[in-house]
Amino acid sequence: MARILLVEDDETIGGVLATTLGAQGYQVSWEQTGAGALRSAAATEVDLVLLDLGLPDIDGLEVCRRLRATRPSVVLVMLTARTEEMDVVVGLEAGADDYLTKPVRLGELLARVRAHLRRAGPGAGDGQGTAAAGGLRVDLAGRRATVGGRELTLRAKEFDLLARLMATPGAAVSREDLMSDVWDENWFGPTKTLDVHVAAVRRKLAEMAEHGPVPSIVTLRGHGYRLEPPD
Ligand code: CA
């Protein structure tokens, strides 16, 4: 389960957030100072940091900069009572990925945390922007693929596979590259997993053909696959 570092000096707010996140199954460590947060982040692995900007010892923006410098891939979400646009911009420039303004709505907090962790997860890809081929649109941030507005019901790795092929339409992609990009491993054995997933994505694309022109996935014998945009 994902590990969340909560940095909040306010006892009441911190308590509510820690309890709420813990109840969702997240592993939460709660620090009440900037120094404590930096110590904790240095000592243990963490996937996401919820960082209050108004801390008693070190300015939250400075904590943000230092966390980003030592943990480039961690998801940093600022909690701020400062609603001025300038502060948000400064925070994002200091390395934050996102921000929530106080008072924090718990439903929104959980939705954002879930979305960030899904995006940061293995095989999630770059998670930005939209790719399109014919009538197929792939929304990388939302992890949705649609044809004519109808959503394909893709499993996680099927989505990752389609997104990878959509990244280089018309180009051959080797089996090895697909395995390492989508499954995050160097695969030297049989790649049955890949074929099963390709077959599933092909079937689901074909089912959508009545809603718009869909690309096809061409098998390149002895090499891999190529996504062919529709004419
Ligand atoms: Ca505070």
Looking at the structure, what is the overall shape?
Answer: elongated
| Structural class determined from secondary elements | alpha/beta
SSE topology string:
EHEHEHEHEHEEEEHEHHEE
- CATH architecture name of the largest domain: 3-Layer(aba) Sandwich
- State the helicity in percent bands: 40-55%
Q: Quickly name the level 1 CATH class of the largest domain.
A: Alpha Beta
What's the Cα radius of gyration?
Answer: 21 Å
- What molecules are bound to this protein? calcium ion
State the end-to-end CA separation. 44 Å
The beta-strand count equals 12
For the record, what is the CATH homologous superfamily label of the largest domain?
Response regulator
- CATH topology (level 3) name of the largest domain: Rossmann fold
Residue stretches low in confidence (pLDDT < 50, at least 5 long) are 122-127
| Tally of separate helices | 8
User: How big a fraction of the residues is strand?
Assistant: 15-25%
Mean pLDDT, to the nearest integer, reads: 85
Number of domains: 2
Provide the spatial order of strands within the biggest beta sheet.
Answer: 2-1-3-4-5
Could you describe the largest sheet, including whether it forms a barrel?
A: 5 strands, parallel
